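thread: overnight batch results

M.L. [08:02]
morning all. the overnight job finished for the chain we discussed friday. pasting input first so we're all looking at the same thing
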Amino acid sequence: MIGVFSKNDRLGTALVDALTSLNAEKFKTGDSYEAVLCLEPDMVELLSEKTKAPIIMLGRQHEEAALSLKTPIRLDMLRQRLNVFLSARATDITFETADFLFSAHKRQLTDKKNGREIALTEKESALIAYLVTCADHTATKEQLLEAVWNYRPDIETHTIESHVYALKQKIGIHADSLLQSTPEGYHLFI
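M.L. [08:03]
and the structure it wrote out:
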C-alpha cells in the first residue's frame, strides 16, 4: 500500500484515485506503508520522522527521498515507476555471473575475482536493475531514459553515456565482461 501525502487535498485525492491499482490511500500517521508518495519537498523531513517507509518525492530531487520523480509525468509512467520501485524493494533484483554478484537492494556490485565490493549510486543501481529485466535483449537509449531517468525519449542528452562511463570506471578492467554498449543501446551479460 502507498500513502499519498499532499497539503493540497484535491491533488492528493486525485492521485489516490489514479493509483488505486497500487492500493493508494491518503497518508495517515501510524499506518504501515510500502512507500509514501510526497508532493511537497519541505515535508520530506517531517514525513521521515512519522514513517519508516521509503519516501518517494514527486516533483523535484530530494536527497532524503528513496526515489525522486520529475514532473510532469504521465500517470501510466508514474504507475510503472512505482511498480518497479516496489517490486525491486520486495524482491531485491539480483544476479550472479562468473565475475560479479549484484544486489539492487544493497546498491552493490561485488567483483568475485578479488572480493571487491563496489558501492553504486541510486541511478547506477537502477540502470543495472533495469538491464537485468531486459536480459534477453538490448535496452535502447530511449527505454533507459524513460524508465531510469524519467526523461522524455526525444530529449537530447548524454546522461546515459556519462553514467555508463562512470560505472565502467568503478568496475575496472572486467567492465566489458558485464556491460556492453552497442549502437542500438546497452546490454548486460548475465
